[in-house]
Each structure stands twice: as structure tokens, then as C-alpha cells.
Predict the structure.
Amino acid sequence: MSFTQKTLNTLIAGAFAATLTMAAVDKAEAAAPEGKEKCYGVVKAGMNDCGALDGSHSCAKQARVDSDIKEWVLVPKGLCHKIVGGKLAEEAKAEMGGE
């Protein structure tokens, strides 16, 4: 296989991987169901509902530490601010430094 062909294959594979990553991040940032809200910063390690706020993963049960501001769990609307450390998405992003 020529150098040009290898380079082209690498570029195509990279574009494909980037597309999959973006799709995962979009899924992770999907809106909460009616009557629920995403509450960040209150999840025990391994108990998060889905992807991290920073896009570092897109799967449930991937939180590595307790109370990570990037991890969330669905709670009934209005409950998040009643939980110590509970933050909604905009507050969590601000605490992360606008990442």
C-alpha cells in the first residue's frame, strides 16, 4: 500500500471516529424527559445515568469518583437544588470553568 493510500485511510478513519464521538456527545447532552432534570455533582462513583458533561464518556455507570461535577443523574424537577452539591447544567459548566 502506498504512502498516499495509507494517509487517505488514516484521514477517513479519523473522520469516522470524530463523527462517532460527536454523536455520543450529542446523545449525552440530550434533553431530560418531561418532569425530570439532570442533576450534576451528586452522583456516587459508577452510578451516573449517562454521559459526562465534558464528553469524556457517553455511557451510564462510568463515573469514577463520588460527586464529580461532570456526572449527572435524573431527578424529579425541582429536587436538584435541594440536594447538597446539586447543580443544573449551566451551573455545572460554570463550576468546570466553562469547559
User: Anything to note?
Assistant: Helices lie at 3-28, 89-95.
